[in-house]
Amino acid sequence: MCEANAYLKDGENEVMFMESVDVIEPYENGLKLIDIFGMQKFIQAKIKDMTLLNHRIILEKIDSELVQIKLNIESSVT
Amino acid sequence: MCEANAYLKDGENEVMFMESVDVIEPYENGLKLIDIFGMQKFIQAKIKDMTLLNHRIILEKIDSELVQIKLNIESSVT
Question: Distance (Å, rounded) from C-alpha A25 to C-alpha A40?
Answer without folding.
Answer: 11
